[in-house]
């Protein structure tokens, strides 16, 4: 069982930065891949980024490539999403999720555990 808690969301101006954190409970967290997804009002859940269990492989949606960076610190049971050059269209609730296969995916149904989400609002 893994429990995930996101933090770091907030209100930021366009062009600004935020760093989201996903803190996990559970001794086996290092075996899980972790993904970040987002959902804006009236829109479907959207893949943002993922990192494999080892941290050696990362994946990004085209819309955030070059602006967002996902990383993990398994010693702290935490995954981060550094978001730079934020745009109004990045406004959404951001969720982290854990995949016990360790591989990660852009498909949300691949993930076994989800956090409650953190709101990111980018003003233009």
Task: Write a compact overview of the structure shown.
The chain has strands at residues 4-7, 10-13, 18-24, 33-39, 46-51, 58-60, 68-73, 78-83, 92-99, 113-114, 118-123. With 124 residues, the chain is mostly beta strands.
Salient structural properties:
11 strands; 4-stranded antiparallel β-sheet; 7-stranded mixed β-sheet
* Helix share bin: under 10%
Mind telling me the C-alpha Rg? 13 Å
Net shape: globular
* Strand count: 11
Mean pLDDT: 95
β-strand percent reads over 45%
Oligomer: single chain
Largest sheet: 7 strands, mixed
Q: How many H/I helices?
A: 0
Note poorly predicted spans.
none
Based on helices, strands and strand pairing, what is the structural class? mainly beta
- Summarize the helix and strand pattern as letters: EEEEEEEEEEE
Through-space gap between termini? 40 Å
């Amino acid at each position: 069982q893994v429990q995930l808690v996101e933090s770091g969301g907030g209100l930021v101006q366009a062009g600004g930065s935020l760093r989201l954190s996903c803190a996990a409970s559970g001794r086996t967290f290092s075996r899980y891949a972790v993904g970040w997804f987002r959902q804006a009002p009236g829109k479907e859940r959207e893949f943002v980024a993922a990192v494999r269990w080892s941290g050696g492989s990362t994946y990004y949606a085209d819309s955030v490539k070059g602006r967002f960076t996902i990383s993990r610190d398994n010693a702290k049971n935490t995954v981060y999403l550094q978001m730079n050059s934020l745009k109004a269209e990045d406004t959404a609730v951001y969720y982290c999720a854990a995949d016990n296969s360790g591989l990660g995916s852009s498909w949300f149904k691949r993930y076994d555990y989800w956090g409650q989400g953190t709101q990111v609002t980018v003003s233009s």
